[in-house]
Write a structure and sequence with these properties.
Layout: H1 10-14, H2 17-26, E1 29-33, E2 39-43, H3 46-54, E3 58-59, H4 62-65, H5 68-74, H6 96-105, H7 110-114, H8 117-134, E4 136-138, H9 139-144, H10 146-156, H11 163-174, H12 179-206, H13 211-220, H14 227-240, H15 243-258, H16 260-268, H17 273-284, E5 293-295, E6 299-301, E7 304-306, E8 311-314, H18 316-319, H19 354-371, E9 376-377, E10 399-401
Parallel strand pairs: 2-8
Antiparallel strand pairs: 1-2, 3-5, 4-10, 5-8, 6-7, 9-10
């Protein structure tokens, strides 16, 4: 088939589905070169992607799966001060992955997440009210982003004053594609690591009841977590705790604006929100590619064989639009059932924060469609741009307008009358 464009580019992210449909039909397992010139294999059909995500022969830790020469050829250069981040849970295989995941799993159980509902509602209502009062906002920067940032920031105990710069630092990190990107981002990433070390040091001295303090206590117990793993875990929780939700809310809102019938239906049928969120996850695929795996031996997908020692990316965005699984995959069907999307992955590395992302989206979308009447794009649709990224798919901005209305303060109890005066 013809050459494949850089799938980490902004141009590809704007409309990836024609290429993915062609790959599923003509080359469902294909070797490509990314923008950094490094090779990788793409797996694009739903059945193969689901299988790849659960296959133990596709390892996450390149130090176990590859020889030193293979690692040098396939993995990007990393500054020494970022080496602790190679210990993050996403890049580990059992038993280390099992141990690390168990440390934070209890925080993200559906029951514990449900306890956050009231706080998420309060944050969402405040953000939506400010948007309504102004009548024009960048929905990504002023609603989709601050909601999950505040929630994960409060869980971790990151001071509110630090949220904006923390977002800027992590944004540089998730946007890395090449060694040149790494060089350009090095100052920001150095400041990020210095901040994390200071935050962990403070928890060692003062303790606390947030998640970072709990991780510090686990590290100090000796056998469950070392400092590199602790730093990597905090950064992973921050990045993973908001990136998917930001992209889901912003891209999902754009999908609704592109389909006025679905937007109106969501407004009229609030009980539809749970299947609607699942469909928006499928339709927009905020995580476009699952993070890389490495073949520890030859692995076959049908008649296609990927040799040992190769980097592999299962393409969630393609699997979620596979015609063999989803009828009319290019159509937004808010009540789609069944919906076997892979938006949160599959297998042992299934997204730990999925319950939290679902709850945030289930609260945000009804508030947006209900409380922002007359919602519409404030710029031409063609002017919207997408972030270049290997793994994620998300907009750079989403300017919208709505019918403006004043913010009304919550009525207070009447104050007692002054002596000698009638109320």
């Amino acid at each position: 088939m013809k050459s494949i464009p850089d799938i980490s580019s902004a141009q590809h992210k704007a409309n990836p589905h024609p290429l993915y449909a062609r790959l599923r039909a003509e080359a469902p397992v294909v070797r490509i070169l990314f923008g950094d010139g490094k090779p990788a294999w793409l797996v694009t059909r739903h059945a193969d992607v689901a299988s790849a995500l659960k296959d133990p022969r596709l390892g996450k830790d390149p130090f176990r799966a590859l020889t030193a020469r293979e690692r040098a050829a396939q993995t990007p250069w990393t500054p020494s001060f970022l080496r602790p981040l190679t210990k993050n849970m996403l890049d580990q295989d059992p038993p280390d992955h099992t141990r690390l995941r168990a440390l934070v799993h209890q925080v993200f159980t559906p029951r514990r997440v449900e306890d956050l509902r009231g706080r998420i509602v309060t944050i969402t209502e405040g953000l939506v009210a400010r948007a309504r009062a102004r009548g024009a906002i960048d929905l990504l920067e002023e609603l989709a982003l601050p909601l999950p940032i505040r929630v994960i920031g409060e869980l971790l105990g990151i001071p509110e004053a630090d949220w904006p710069r923390f977002r800027a630092w992590t944004n540089r990190m998730v946007g890395l594609r090449t060694s040149l990107d790494m060089v350009r981002a090095a100052p920001s990433l150095y400041m990020l690591m210095r901040y994390l070390r200071a935050l962990v040091g403070k928890r060692r001295r003062t303790g606390g009841d947030d998640l970072i303090a709990a991780l510090v206590r686990a590290e100090e117990e000796g056998s469950r977590l070392n400092e590199d793993e602790l730093l990597a875990m905090v950064l992973l929780l921050v990045a993973a705790g908001h990136e998917t939700t930001v992209n889901l809310i912003a891209s999902g809102t754009l999908a609704l604006l592109d389909d006025p019938e679905s937007l109106d239906r969501m407004r009229r049928e609030p009980g539809l929100v749970k299947p609607a969120v699942e469909e928006l996850l499928r339709f927009t695929s905020p995580v476009d590619l699952a993070t890389e795996r490495y073949t520890t031996e030859d692995v076959a997908f049908g008649e296609h064989v990927i040799p040992r020692g190769q980097r592999v990316f299962p393409v969630l965005g393609s699997a979620n639009h596979d015609e063999q699984v989803f009828a009319s995959p290019g159509r937004l069907a808010l009540d789609r059932e069944p919906n076997r999307h892979l938006g949160f992955g599959n297998g042992a590395h299934y997204c730990l924060g999925a319950p939290l992302a679902r709850l945030e989206a289930q609260i945000a979308f009804p508030a947006i469609v209900r409380d922002l009447p007359g919602l519409r794009l404030a710029v031409p649709r063609a002017s919207l741009t997408w972030r270049p990224s290997t793994v994620l798919r998300g907009l750079t901005r989403l300017p919208v307008t709505c019918a403006a209305a004043p913010i009304y303060s919550v009525p207070r109890a009447p104050r007692p009358a002054a002596a000698g005066l009638q109320p």
